[in-house]
Amino acid sequence: MGQVAFDTLKFVKKLELAGVPAKQAEAFSEAVRESHEAVDVATKRDLEDVRKDLSAEIANVRKDLSADIANVRKEMDARFDKVDARFDKINDKFEKLGMQMTIRLGLMVAAAVSIIAAILKM
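Above: the chain sequence. Below: its structure as tokens.
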């Protein structure tokens, strides 16, 4: 983090103009400077640097997420295509089975009609 700018000379001059003896003004100035050094304060520049870093990281995460989502969509589409193909095969089998049942039923009806006609002729 950056340090807060503190002009010790200007501070001492202001204290002296206010009537504080030079030795005391210098001691006050030194104490304030040390307190500023002990405090870890973020400057506007520090905050701007962090904002830029975070923006870059967020952009990278968004790119990664977009790529991952695209991959998942491709995998899902492939799996849905497989499921659709299986359902198509099952539908084809049911259509064939339905056709076979219709033919068998038709043959049974025709046989029954023929038997009934034969019995009636007798």
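Residues 1-41 form one domain.
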